[in-house]
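User: Need the bound-state model for coenzyme A:
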Amino acid sequence: MKSTAAAPVVRPRVAAVRRFNRFYTRQIGLLDEGLLNSPFSLTEVRTLYELAQREKTTAAELCKTLGLDAGYLSRILSSFEKTNLIEKKESPKDARQTLLSLTKKGRNAFAPLNARSEEQVKAMLGQLSPKKQDHLVQAMQTIEGSLAREAEPLRSYVLRQPRPGDMGWVVYRHGILYQQEYGYDERFEALVAGIVAEFIQNLDAARERCWIAESDGENLGSVFLVRKSQTVAKLRLLLVDPSARGLGIGGHLVSECVRFAREVGYRKIMLWTQSELVAARKIYQKTGFKLVDRRPHQSWGRNDLVAETWALRL
Ligand SMILES: CC(C)(COP(=O)(O)OP(=O)(O)OC[C@H]1O[C@@H](n2cnc3c(N)ncnc32)[C@H](O)[C@@H]1OP(=O)(O)O)[C@@H](O)C(=O)NCCC(=O)NCCS
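Assistant: Bound-state model below.
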């Protein structure tokens, strides 16, 4: 987070943000001595969480992800190593690098914390109607999007054609992110796997395309443009990794689809989305797509979804 403010900030706003911080830290139990009735501090639990998300990682990567001071993180990692929660191994690719991973004991220590955290949030959301839950989640995404955009320096990235392994990445990230962010179960991942398999097997290379957004060798996003008929194309599987959201990559992927669709002679682009995917809706609206149909449905373990069809005349 930048320490100097570029824009004028009035005191009542500062007070409002501080009030919210006090309210929310109490609400989610951050003031309790050990987080989630565990012996761990908040920073230790966050470090365990990041280790559990990756098979192997490095201290430098954890420092970057958590925004922690290297010395502080190093003390946490040493205590994890002493208590056999993590193990360190030399990287086979680069002997100067040490790879960190959770041991079985570490995974066993993390699993109940993760479950308790999930239960805690479920209980908090469960006090609200589905509509209010929706508002809360959207408001949280707005906070995250606004602050992340300011904090993150603009990353340079490229949009490129897919390579072997990318399609698996698309399925994998959709499966994980839609489960984490919207609670869709594995049937959603199966749907994505089906779309991807169909794309590979029946590709019309002249009129269909997939773009992968990549930065420093890391995949950040995807979108597909596929043929529905001679004159109509479909935009599918738009996704940007949370670490790279709010930087314009999603908008860029969609505008690339539109440019290509025009170039190869489609007259219209259709897409199918869900009403709760608010950031995507915003991009579609800005690009000129119009909402043409809305219908409630029950899918992927959710019974309160509203599917939307959007269309853009080219
Ligand atoms: C939709 C998605 C691809 C956008 O990626 P992105 O790189 O962050 O997109 P951009 O930075 O180009 O633009 C996002 C826009 O949504 C807005 N936005 C973000 N969160 C929002 C929210 N909760 N409510 C309203 N608008 C929101 C941003 O302000 C931005 O608009 P702006 O440029 O006018 O400020 C990404 O959020 C994502 O992967 N979401 C989950 C998957 C998904 O919904 N896919 C669509 C499938 S149909």
